[in-house]
Amino acid sequence: MNKHILEQFLTDLKPLGLPLMKGEHLFFQGDQVENFYYLKTGKIKLIRNTIEGGQALIHVALAGESFAEASLFSSEYHCSAIAVSTSEIMRYKKSDLLVYLEQKPAAMKGLLKMFAQQVRDLRTVNEIKNIRSAKERVLTFISHEMNEDKELYLSMPLKDVAYKIGLTHETFYRELKKLEQARKLQRRDGFLKLL
Amino acid sequence: MNKHILEQFLTDLKPLGLPLMKGEHLFFQGDQVENFYYLKTGKIKLIRNTIEGGQALIHVALAGESFAEASLFSSEYHCSAIAVSTSEIMRYKKSDLLVYLEQKPAAMKGLLKMFAQQVRDLRTVNEIKNIRSAKERVLTFISHEMNEDKELYLSMPLKDVAYKIGLTHETFYRELKKLEQARKLQRRDGFLKLL
DNA sequence: ATTGATATATGATTCAAATCATATGCGGTG
DNA sequence: CACCGCATATGATTTGAATCATATATCAAT
Hints:
By secondary structure, chain A is an alpha+beta fold. Chain A is built from six helices and eight strands. Chain A has helices spanning 2-10, 94-103, 105-128, 134-145, 158-164, 169-181; strands spanning 16-20, 25-27, 35-49, 55-62, 80-93, 151-153, 185-188, 191-194. In chain A, strands 1, 2, 3, 4 and 5 form a five-stranded antiparallel beta sheet that branches. Chain A has a three-stranded antiparallel beta sheet with strand order 6-8-7. In chain A, strand 7 (185-188) and strand 8 (191-194) form a beta hairpin. The longest helix of chain A is centred in the middle third of the chain and has 24 residues, at 105-128. The two termini of chain A are 26 Å apart. At the A-B interface, strand 4, helix 2, helix 3 and helix 4 of A face strand 4, helix 2, helix 3 and helix 4 of B. Chain B binds a DNA duplex through helix 6.
């Protein structure tokens, strides 16, 4: 969905294709923001170095997504971007993009809408993380993300889903199994289906 | 900070003043979105009715903030707004605002920037909620919110802060006390100061 | 001033998720 | 093919935050 919005209003600007090897850094936390990126194919992990020296997963950008959008208005990145798998990036010069948006209200409105969606999604995850029970947490997450057929396509490893909703992967695996055994959930390949 | 941005680009539109008594609803979850609101004075709580019948605090809007920004692009509210204290609201007709933004790129850019900041703030809270240790969670939160003097003005009750970072208020009180006793934190009136 | 509601505070106990450990499966790579 | 790294999976144990209970302080309203 983000894909269409972005492709729509970025067509007039000539982006630069940029291949990225697995494990390669696109930018580092603290780097000056000179470009705006759009992920064509692959997967990009955004991590932030915490005070205690740890690393926190902030977001996993998937094919068709832009990422680190907030950096459009800040001079330096507040997180690092690392390719989880071999990826293809579209690169736009930040200054060009800002000028372009200023001249094309429809484009800016599209971006605004995308940001609004982001805010809502983040609030949803935030709310989910306040649910104490792992079981309820998992069920609530699936309910929010599933389609009309009550199916959820997993665009990332279960491990990352666990992190996203604030559970350890061990607990997440166990809860999935329990739900499956209780006939409340069905699993096949990359899908979860609520019953 | 949000205050200045909004006041700047909403000046040309004539808003409608709207007094709100404590406990009064501004809108209900599911209502059609016809207006965009800006909180002049007071405090507004945004709550969402969860599936299990519970209520989740999504956000506490303070004086000078706009809220439920995401609703600008959706037909109905996904949360309810209730005045925590007697408040004064500025009301803009949604359709008017959208037209206005389309005609004034600078205004839209301002809004875009505000949304970007929202996204970053939400990601920060998200990250904080993944910290298991209550002590580290509290410390990390304060570190992120404090000013240059390492002081944090509490614009909401400790209870709400606890909820914001995903702790029960009991645990939060206890951790504050422990940090105080360990001389890592100082408390006076509505301030927390890291030592 | 009295009342009522809510925030703050703290103790005792429980329990469920984190942690630690270990094993298997699986996809990519030389 | 064989190896490696990582995801998935599951068991045993621990622990610390949630829960339950109760008390006091504070603030708002009448």
